[in-house]
């Protein structure tokens, strides 16, 4: 199944965009969602888009999958960048260890529900 047609991918994308619309356009801030929803959805959205691009260009096409190591590298990259480096470089970002848990849960969601072979 195409990543773009997988409900386990496009529902997180819709939730992400809805949350961004509410925050940026309507100025609606629901504290818990404002703090953690984007972090929870980041890995399924980013890895899902990346997987789809790979499936367009890789010879295995719809049967291309990321290994658990590749997903883990993405998880570590996000953790280091967003919870380690960006808070040092900019006061806009805040280090929050709960965000790491959200990234982990999102990566697990991606690995088991989006990173699936053609059926």
TrEMBL record:
Keyword Transmembrane attached: yes
Transmembrane segments: 40-57, 64-85, 97-114
UniProt entry keywords in alphabetical sequence: Membrane, Transmembrane, Transmembrane helix
This protein's name: Magnesium citrate secondary transporter
Source species of the chain: Cyclobacterium lianum
Organism lineage: Bacteria, Pseudomonadati, Bacteroidota, Cytophagia, Cytophagales
């Amino acid at each position: 199944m195409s990543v773009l047609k997988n409900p386990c991918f496009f529902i997180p994308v819709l939730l992400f965009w809805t949350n961004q619309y509410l925050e940026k356009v309507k100025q609606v801030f629901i504290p818990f969602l404002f703090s953690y929803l984007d972090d929870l959805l980041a890995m399924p959205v980013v890895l899902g888009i990346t997987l789809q691009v790979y499936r367009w260009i890789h010879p295995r096409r719809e049967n291309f999958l990321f290994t658990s190591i590749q997903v883990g590298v993405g998880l570590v990259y996000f953790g280091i960048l967003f919870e380690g480096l960006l808070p040092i470089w900019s006061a806009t970002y805040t280090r929050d260890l709960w965000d790491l848990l959200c990234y982990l849960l999102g990566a697990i969601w991606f690995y088991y529900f989006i990173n699936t072979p053609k059926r």
